[in-house]
Amino acid sequence: MANLKVTLVRSVIGRPQKQRDVVKALGLGRISSSVVLPDNAATRGAVAKINHLVEVSIAE
Length: 60
What we know:
This is Large ribosomal subunit protein uL30. By secondary structure, the protein is of the alpha+beta class. It has a single domain (3-59), classed as CATH 3.30.1390.20. The chain has helices at 17-25, 41-49, and strands at residues 3-8, 34-38, 54-59. Strands 2-1-3 form a 3-stranded antiparallel sheet, with no helix packed on it. The radius of gyration is 11 Å and the shape is globular.
Protein backbone atom coordinates (compact mmCIF):
# COMPACT_ATOMS: atom_id res chain seq x y z
CA MET A 1 0.00 0.00 0.00
CA ALA A 2 1.28 3.44 -0.88
CA ASN A 3 2.01 6.24 1.56
CA LEU A 4 1.49 9.97 1.24
CA LYS A 5 3.98 12.59 2.38
CA VAL A 6 2.06 15.64 3.61
CA THR A 7 3.94 18.91 4.18
CA LEU A 8 2.48 22.03 5.77
CA VAL A 9 3.33 24.96 3.48
CA ARG A 10 0.95 27.68 4.73
CA SER A 11 0.31 28.97 8.23
CA VAL A 12 -2.81 28.10 10.21
CA ILE A 13 -2.95 31.59 11.72
CA GLY A 14 -6.32 33.13 11.01
CA ARG A 15 -7.82 29.84 9.80
CA PRO A 16 -11.04 28.37 11.21
CA GLN A 17 -10.69 26.12 14.24
CA LYS A 18 -11.82 23.04 12.28
CA GLN A 19 -8.92 23.46 9.86
CA ARG A 20 -6.48 23.92 12.73
CA ASP A 21 -7.80 20.72 14.31
CA VAL A 22 -7.30 18.76 11.08
CA VAL A 23 -3.71 20.01 10.77
CA LYS A 24 -3.01 18.96 14.36
CA ALA A 25 -4.72 15.58 13.91
CA LEU A 26 -2.51 14.83 10.92
CA GLY A 27 0.54 15.43 13.11
CA LEU A 28 1.68 18.66 11.49
CA GLY A 29 2.99 21.47 13.65
CA ARG A 30 5.15 24.12 12.09
CA ILE A 31 5.43 25.27 8.51
CA SER A 32 7.62 22.83 6.52
CA SER A 33 6.87 19.97 8.91
CA SER A 34 6.14 16.71 7.10
CA VAL A 35 4.51 13.41 7.97
CA VAL A 36 4.16 10.16 6.08
CA LEU A 37 0.63 8.80 6.28
CA PRO A 38 -1.12 5.75 4.79
CA ASP A 39 -2.98 6.39 1.56
CA ASN A 40 -6.54 5.61 2.61
CA ALA A 41 -9.93 7.29 2.46
CA ALA A 42 -9.62 8.88 5.92
CA THR A 43 -6.27 10.48 5.13
CA ARG A 44 -7.42 11.70 1.73
CA GLY A 45 -10.56 13.22 3.27
CA ALA A 46 -8.55 15.07 5.92
CA VAL A 47 -6.08 16.35 3.34
CA ALA A 48 -8.95 17.50 1.12
CA LYS A 49 -10.22 19.72 3.96
CA ILE A 50 -6.90 21.57 4.14
CA ASN A 51 -5.57 21.17 0.59
CA HIS A 52 -4.89 24.91 0.38
CA LEU A 53 -2.47 24.65 3.33
CA VAL A 54 -0.51 21.52 2.44
CA GLU A 55 1.52 19.94 -0.31
CA VAL A 56 1.08 16.22 -0.94
CA SER A 57 3.43 13.81 -2.67
CA ILE A 58 3.83 10.05 -2.88
CA ALA A 59 6.29 8.74 -0.29
CA GLU A 60 8.72 6.07 -1.39
